[in-house]
Design goal:
By secondary structure, this protein is an alpha+beta fold. The protein contains 5 helices and 9 strands. The strands form 2 sheets. Strands 1-2-3-4-5-9 form a 6-stranded antiparallel beta sheet. It has a 3-stranded antiparallel beta sheet with strand order 6-7-8, covered by helices on one side.
Length: about 260
């Protein structure tokens, strides 16, 4: 599985800028009204008075799983192809079964492949998982770690998984081999004085690099007055409801047969 890369690269806005902007709507189904699998753009400058009023606002940094998007798109195409064919050519209860099956399966595919994303803004981290959206102000975050999965920890002992930042053990092993190889590349000290030996980011797996970036942003933004507050969790009923409805219809149709 490939790991995510930032869709947008931007620095955090200052206290005078309005943060927490909502990204533009993208493709996919069941996503909340201000987000989607597509690229997102951010906010404008704030309206505070004083010297900080002139500071511009920046877009959220967005992290997604490229492999998840590609795999989900292919799976959606296969399901829709089979389902539409059954609707057009099927007889008896087959079209209804196909319709109920698609209503149940399509939201789940979208939820687990296209929906997950992580939005790192100036004041908060917004985590969009398959069935929940979690908003964590930077001041409420105590740590962000990546072991077998990437997780954010809060002051109230909460733990939230970042589905859009998958951890690849294969990438970690490859990064470790590269570090070992580079350590033995110059046994006689002939490396140029201009070589950047402090570039540890280039020798890290993508998930670990993303985690380090998010942790650094949390540390820099935690003391900002606008980055304080409690975690907010919202269930993605726009994904759960149609999938459950399709499942109920499918069970009823199968039981009648």
């Amino acid at each position: 599985m490939t790991s995510p890369a930032p869709d947008h690269d931007s620095s955090a806005s200052g206290p005078g800028a309005e943060s927490g902007s909502e990204p533009a709507t993208g493709s996919g189904s069941g996503a909340e009204s201000a987000t989607g699998p597509g690229a997102e753009s951010g906010s404008g400058a704030g309206s505070a008075s004083g010297p900080e009023a002139a500071e511009p606002g920046y877009a959220d940094r967005v992290f997604r799983s490229g492999g998840g998007i590609v795999g989900g798109g292919l799976l959606l195409a296969i399901v829709l192809w089979i389902g539409v064919d059954a609707l057009v050519r099927g007889t008896g209860r087959t079209p209804w079964l196909a319709l109920a099956g698609m209503l149940c399966v399509v939201p789940l595919i979208v939820a687990f492949s296209l929906r997950p994303a992580v939005f790192a803004g100036a004041d908060r981290l917004r985590i969009r998982n398959p069935f929940r959206t979690i908003v964590l102000p930077w001041g409420a975050i105590t740590d962000i770690r990546a072991s077998y999965s990437c997780e954010a920890f809060t002051r109230d002992s909460g733990k939230f998984q970042l589905w859009a930042v998958p951890v690849s053990l294969r990438q970690r092993k490859r990064a470790a081999r590269q570090q070992t190889r580079r350590a033995g590349d110059d046994p006689h000290g002939r490396t140029s004085v201009h070589a950047d030996v402090t570039d540890s980011q280039a020798r890290m797996a993508t998930a670990d690099r993303t985690t380090a970036d998010l942790r650094d942003l949390a540390e820099r933004s935690a003391s900002r007055a606008t980055a304080q507050g409690d975690p907010v969790v919202r269930w993605a009923y726009e994904v759960i409801a149609p999938s459950l409805a399709g499942l109920v219809v499918l069970v009823v149709l199968l039981s009648l047969g």
